[in-house]
Amino acid sequence: MKRLMVCIFIFAGLLTSAVAQPVRVVLLDFEDQTGMKADAQLGGGVDSAKLAEKGGYLLARELLKQDDFVLIERRDFMEQMKRLQSAKSDKDAGVVPSRLEAARALRADVLLRGSIVSFSTSKEAINQGGYKAEFSRVLLRVVLQAQDAVNGAVIAVSDGAASQQFRQTSAKQTILGEDDILELFAKALTSATPEVEKGISKRIKAMKSREKLKLSVTTTQDPAMVEIDGVLVGTTPMEALEIYKGDHLLSVSRPGSVTVTKQIRLDKDARIQVPLLREDLTAEEKMVVYEKAEMKIYMTDGKPDLLIQTMD
Where are the chain's structural domains? Predict the structure, then answer.
């Protein structure tokens, strides 16, 4: 056995357990990123910001046409976000975005957001031999972006558009209402969804084929709760937990003790020892804890770091 004691460097976390089908998806807000406004007669009377708010429902309908996707209740996601933000201290802010922590807590695989990027009209007028006609075209374009729910990586981007053309004359004038625009919106999403679904499926397949390692975790005060990538996996002492090779976020906590959260990278089977300190320890008491730990203590910002032993 070769022991390698290392300080912990910052890496993004990846999933810790085999990704089960169907894929669990959190739908984020649909955004209005339109610039030019459509002609008032051809849907321009529809508020594009209000239209974007309906995108989540239309996108959910598209995803649920497939058996491969399960949608996480958005209210549960928002409630989890609020709990995390209220529990975070200033020193924790920015370490891991709250949306990713909330997604992990709900065991989501993917965060999916959408935008209306274009909602506009164009016109072509014809005047030939006394004959006058005007051809109008309304176009709505959307973009979808899928994000890994653990490390935040963008795993798929797709766009889709839908348009309709009208011949306007002095005898015939077409005016589009909200239902007509919603129909265009739905068609644009239908054209955008397959490509983003393909990207998500490719990512999930690649993750399932990754190499697994065995991780053991002990602390100076057992039992303590162990979370990996935002998911509670057990209590210490924890032996031979199967985990994917690569980058992870480890958090060890115990009531009355300082929570230890570190981002780590594992390339071999490993055993991690975590020194836990009471929140109200004096300097002298901390020294006693270090001595009982019987290991070399690495300090980061004045706090004890982890000891990792990698196993050949």
Answer: 23-72+108-208, 212-311
How many helices (DSSP H) and strands (DSSP E) are in the chain? 6, 15
Give the integer Cα–Cα distance in Å for 137 and 39: 10
The strand pair at 110-128 and 23-32 is best described as parallel
Phi, psi of 285 (to 5 degrees): -65, -35
Burial 270-288 (b: 16+ CB within 10 A, else e): bbbbbbbbeeeeeeeebee
Query: Are the beta carbons of 226 and 219 closer than 8 angstroms?
Result: no
Percent of the chain with pLDDT strictly greater than 70: 74
At 246-281, the pLDDT tens digits run 878 888 888 888 888 887 888 888 888 888 777 776
Query: What is the band of 308 on the pLDDT scale with cuts at 50, 70, 90?
Result: low
Nearest residue to 253 via CA among 280, 232, 282 = 232
* Whether the Cβ atoms of residue 14 and residue 247 lie closer than 8 Å to each other: yes
Q: Quote the distance between the C-alpha of residue 15 and its chain's center.
A: 12
CATH class of 23-72+108-208: alpha beta
Whole-angstrom distance, CA of residue 48 vs CA of residue 34: 8
- The pair of structure tokens assigned to 308 is 């990792």
Q: Is the pLDDT of residue 152 over 90?
A: no
Do 23-72+108-208 and 212-311 show the same overall fold? no
Token pair in block for residue 48 = 């594009």
Structure tokens of 214? 């065995």
Name the band, by pLDDT with cuts 50, 70 and 90, for residue 189. very high
Asked if CATH classification 2.60.40.1120 holds for the domain at 212-311, the reply, yes or no, is yes
